[in-house]
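To whoever picks this up:

The nightly regression suite flagged Exodeoxyribonuclease 7 large subunit as changed. Nothing in the input moved, so I suspect the structure step. Input below, exactly as stored in the fixture:
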Amino acid sequence: MPTEPFPVDKTTPAEPQALSVGQLTAQIKGTLEETFPSVWVTGEVSNFSRPQSGHCYLTLKDDVAQIRAVIWRGSASRMAFELRDGVELICHGHLDLYGPRGTYQLVIDRAMPRGVGALEQALRELKARLAKEGLFDAAKKRPLPRFPRRVGFVTSPTGAAVRDFLQVLGRRSSGVEVLVIPTRVQGEGAAEEIAAAIRAANRVRPALDTLVVGRGGGSLEDLWAFNEEPVVRAIANSRIPTISAVGHEIDVTLADLAADLRALTPSEAAERIAPSSAELSSRIGSLRDRLHRSVWRRTQASRQRLTGLAARRPLARPFVLLEDRQRLLDELERMAGERISRKLGDRQALLARIAGQLDSLSPLGVLARGYSLTTHGESSGHGESPSKIGSVVRSADRLAPGDLIHTRLAVGRVASIVKSIHSDP
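Regenerated output under the current build:
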């Protein structure tokens, strides 16, 4: 029987001793826990969350790496400061490996703040500089239009934010036209794209009534584009009333401060933009009822007032007022006649009294009582002045025999020539 030139070993080789995934994970877990039973780590907090269980989940990071961390509720309740993104911590704890996921994490039992993280510090400096320029002034905030017709939304077209926004807005008001202006909302270059989209929205014709800039929630890093200067300046310079709707309720972005209105989420922005159709219908119905009641009350009050006016004497008997005025006129006429008669009687009596006084002083009255008035006539040649002719003779010494004199009696005149002069003893 021929032999084979190259003998072959036909025995089956032994199977290598392989570890299961669980065994390997358990060995790594034991090695980690034995190697790092107690460790101090410093890093910046990111992706912080605290659900209802009270446990705190976060990521510690620096410039080159990051590690997941957890603070159980008991340890978290003993901390005297508030944990949040951007805070740099000095933490004590131990490493633990979570087998179902094959990931390791730092279990923190003590922590103290070291200071403000790099991102937080940069954010504070930018906020202070832009605030000094007046980009966040409350006096510059504009009110939103009450019933907008065209709304622009600067956001990622593939995110849940735009779906939530359209769903809520469509449910509240079906008459609003929405223009989605697509852009990236996170990552390198996202801030420039968002700013360019805002400027493009301001060039849309017909013009938009309201502009929404936002996205759904995320970590501080995810939302960082809304803290960058190009986005903040674009919002501040927007001619359209702008809503910042960055879905992060805890931290306020600089875009929130620059916008005319901040909404906690895109869904809330939709609620703030358009009133609900049902609410408007209810409001209109309430106003209509109030208007009807007001008109009815005014009508009733006017009717009562008109009835009261109609019952008054001038309207019920329109000629009474004229008759009263005629009666008053007659009375005034009678009183005026009586007063005039009395005045005339008084004046006539006064006139008679004055006439009697004048008559008693009149020369004619004296003549009537038997007296006479003698005046000079032509002179007999004694050289009297012609000016004496007609003057009253008051003394016999002023006459000479042969003088012509005139005597006026109560009735008629007498011309005489003086024959002799006799002076009274």
